[in-house]
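ok new one. same drill as before - structure tokens go in, u give me an amino acid for every spot. 78 of them this time. try not to just spam alanines like last time pls lmao
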């Protein structure tokens, strides 16, 4: 499988703080923690392959949430 587009994510301090809080909260579901980790790791410059390996999830899951985050913020900016 070829990944032709690199998804870069730039978070504001507030977004980073909120995602970190979701990731650390005992009341967050595993799904929400996983989504937060994907976005945080992407912003830190991790490749899709590194995220898949670290979180033990599929490429499809990483790609889905990175794309969704990117697209939602592109809409908000337009």
């Amino acid at each position: 499988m070829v990944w032709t587009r690199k998804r870069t994510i730039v978070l504001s301090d507030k977004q980073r703080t909120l995602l970190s809080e979701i990731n650390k909260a005992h009341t967050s579901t595993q799904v929400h923690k996983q989504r937060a980790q994907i976005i945080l790791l992407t912003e830190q410059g991790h490749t899709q392959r590194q995220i898949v390996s670290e979180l033990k999830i599929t490429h499809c899951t990483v790609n889905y949430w990175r794309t969704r985050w990117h697209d939602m913020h592109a809409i908000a900016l337009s």
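The first helix runs from residue 13 to 24. and btw The helical segments are 13-24, 30-43, 48-55, 59-77.
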